[in-house]
UniProtKB/TrEMBL annotation:
UniProt main location, coarse: membrane
Gene Ontology MF terms in the entry: transmembrane transporter activity
Location(s) in or outside the cell: Cell membrane
Gene Ontology CC: plasma membrane
Keywords recorded for this protein, A-Z: Membrane, Transmembrane, Transmembrane helix, Transport
Protein name (record): Major Facilitator Superfamily protein
Membrane topology term: Multi-pass membrane protein
Annotated organism of origin: Pseudonocardia oroxyli
Pfam families: MFS_1
Membrane-crossing residue ranges in chain numbering: 21-38, 58-76, 92-111, 117-140, 152-173, 185-207, 253-274, 294-313, 320-338, 344-365, 377-399, 411-430
Presence of keyword Membrane: yes
Domain Major facilitator superfamily (MFS) profile: from-to ranges: 25-435
UniProt-listed PROSITE patterns: MFS
CDD domains per record: MFS_ExuT_GudP_like
Length: 436
């Protein structure tokens, strides 16, 4: 039997091991996700800044091009996560980086709408497994008590890539126009696609699959961290599904897929259409902004969301409240933006929505990882992410189609609000059911 002294020493070693692993791994993961998310959504900056006109895209066709990414993503998400679980994160994530970097770079040379849609589909195929693979990877390294915080730090790449990416993408489009004989939006795709290929080399040499293989960590910290993660995994496996098939059929996993769908619906609707909404301020309010000014305005909701993400994860200890409350606030605030009297009040309402979406995201992943482990976790996380990310196809398509049909963004953003509120309701219902 372990003495209190041994238990206390183990806890201290786990804490120091978590700090050491966090300093080593999380900055690299943030950089990877920054590049990943930027390559996924930079079409939102290309569209209203030359691409739609040059390729002859309507709002609906732009929505198809933006969203078809997630069809390829859906098809290979679960198999990719299972392969990562089998072969290790270092090898599999490096492979993902190389393939998505090549496709993202080729998008600079797309000649027409058909090729653009095909390349966006292939980009989804190439990126499949990256995000859920990282979520799974974090379960190998961090016990549940610290995992939500580490997930929040990892996911700061979303607002950073969108806020900073909005400015960087706008600058590249504006000042890169004509470089190598390419339009500004083509230069943007080229410049932003190359880093993924370079980072594959970094991942191959710098990423460590599990604590047991971490030679850069003292042996006692490494062993304590392995024991803590293994003990949690054994406890979770007693409560959750035991197999890949069990995870894929689990009603709780399917319900969590809808919750994630609702939260991410808001994220992608903003990511793909916020630049267009800001550009349309000229029509709605008679206010004109330069391309760079539009990029700066687009960055505001994500800069505020970055702060909300970190602070909310620290303050909200209850996992259900951590997800349901910001999803509810975000869903209720987005339609309000449509009825503001001036552009700055509209930006405030959109910023509240963005803060709600981003605050809900890192907390969400504590829900399935408290229920799944091992191969069941690989399958379940992959399924939740793939079904949830169908919103990446549905949100831009529905928003674009409703914009074409009505001549306004209002109906599409009302749909965003309803879907996000439903995610909050389902989250709360899962909590109530768990108590019975």
């Amino acid at each position: 039997m372990s003495s209190d002294t041994d238990v206390g020493r183990d806890e201290q070693l786990v804490r120091s091991g978590v700090r050491r692993a966090g300093r080593r791994l999380i900055p690299l993961l943030i950089v990877l996700y920054f590049v990943n998310y930027l390559d996924r959504v930079n079409i939102g900056f290309a569209g209203p800044n030359g691409m739609n006109d040059e390729l002859g895209l309507s709002a609906t066709m732009f929505g198809v091009a933006a969203g078809v990414f997630f069809i390829g993503y859906l098809l290979l998400e679960v198999p990719s996560n299972l392969l990562l679980h089998r072969f290790g994160a270092r090898r599999w994530i490096a492979r993902i980086l190389v393939t998505w970097g090549i496709v993202a770079t080729i998008m600079a040379f797309t000649p027409n709408a058909t090729v653009l849609i095909v390349l966006r589909f292939l980009l989804g195929v190439a990126e499949a497994g990256f995000f859920p693979g990282i979520i799974l990877y974090l379960t190998y390294w961090f016990p549940a008590g610290q995992r939500a915080r580490m997930t929040a730090w990892f996911m700061t790449a979303v607002p950073i890539s969108t806020a900073l990416g909005a400015v960087v993408s706008s600058l590249i489009i504006e000042h890169g126009h004509g470089l190598w004989g390419l339009s500004g939006w083509r230069v943007m795709f080229l410049v932003e696609g190359i880093p993924a290929i370079l980072l594959a080399v970094v991942v191959w040499f710098a990423l460590t699959d599990r604590p047991a293989a971490a030679r850069w960590m003292p042996a006692d910290e490494r062993d304590a961290l392995e024991r803590a993660v293994a003990a949690e995994g054994a406890q979770v496996s007693e409560e959750g599904p035991k197999s890949v098939l069990g995870a894929l059929k689990s009603p709780r996993v399917l319900a969590l897929s809808w919750v994630y769908f609702g939260i991410v619906y808001g994220l992608y609707a903003l990511g793909f259409f916020l630049p267009t909404i800001v550009k349309n301020f000229a029509v709605q309010y008679g206010t004109r902004f330069t391309t760079v000014q539009q990029g700066l305005i687009t960055a505001i909701p994500y800069a505020v969301g970055l702060v909300a993400m970190i602070l909310w994860t620290r303050r909200a200890a209850n996992p259900t409240i951590r997800v349901a409350v910001p999803a509810l606030v975000g869903g209720l605030s987005i339609p309000v933006a449509l009825y503001m009297a001036n552009p700055w009040l509209a930006v405030v309402a959109v910023t509240v929505c963005g803060g709600g979406v981003l605050a809900a995201l890192p907390g969400f992943w504590s829900l399935p990882t408290a229920y799944l482990t091992g191969a069941a976790a690989a399958a379940g996380i992959g399924l939740i992410n793939s079904l949830g990310n169908l919103s990446g196809f549905v949100a831009p398509y529905v928003t674009g189609a409703l914009s074409d049909a009505t001549g306004s963004n209002r109906t599409g953003l009302w749909v965003v609000g309803v879907v996000m509120v439903s995610a909050a309701v389902v989250t709360w219902a899962l909590r109530a059911r768990a108590r019975t």
